[in-house]
Amino acid sequence: MEAASPELALRDAIRTRLKATAAVAALVAKRIHDEVPPARGDAVPPPALQVPYVYFGPMRRSEYEIGCGESWTIQARLYAVSTAFDRDQGWRVVDAMIAALNGLERPDLPLADPYSLRIPVEIVQAGDVIDPLQAKSVFLDLRTRIARPVPGQEP
Prior knowledge:
The chain is an alpha+beta fold. It contains 3 helices and 5 strands.
């Protein structure tokens, strides 16, 4: 299957990796979303809305010149959301995600055609967002470089 953009190729590969990582799955099950799930007002939220969960925040790209194809530096933010009393649960989720993603290279994080990783995934920073009226969010920012060969020069 071909991905529509390098960001979506990376998003899909990260989601697959996190769902397959035992430490992450033990904390959030399969609740890894592209965006915050909408609240429906149910007395008991459906499984996708139960906390903790992970969602993708902003993603951005900047072009990177390589001369023999297209290449971009991609940055993404992932959030772990928790309603637990303290910050511990959110940080445990982020720590599990960092262990699952930091330093991943091409064979360990395959992207949909025609994209491929050019440098390992790097966790740039992590932090938390605490608002007394909202669920707690802990985030991580990651960065990598993705390339697409020039048509006709594919491996």
